[in-house]
Specification:
With 84 residues, the protein is an alpha+beta fold. It has helices spanning 2-8, 37-46, 48-55, and strands at 13-20, 28-34. The protein has 3 helices and 2 strands; from the N terminus they run αββαα.
């Protein structure tokens, strides 16, 4: 429970969506939405190393972190270019 607590209580956090493959249940994609790129980068630098340390025994490989800008969102009502 610690990793999600650290995520949702961090400044600028908006939402998290987790996708699990229906054909490869060990393949998971987590999408986090932030108010700004700076908020996301601060989380990645200050908090994510702790989260990764807790989760690493459960993972087959090191997670890959990529950053995208929201172009369009109907579900999250996030304006284009608003979230990191």
């Amino acid at each position: 429970m610690l990793p999600i607590f650290l995520l949702v209580n961090h400044k600028g956090f908006m939402d998290e969506t987790v996708l699990v493959s229906d054909t490869e249940p060990n393949r998971i994609i987590g999408l986090s939405f932030w108010n700004s790129k700076d908020d996301a980068e601060q989380y990645h630098q200050e908090v994510y190393p702790k989260v990764n340390e807790v989760l690493s025994p459960l993972l087959e490989q090191t997670p890959v972190i990529r950053t995208f800008n929201v172009h369009t969102s109907c579900t999250h009502k996030i304006a284009a270019g608003k979230a990191a």
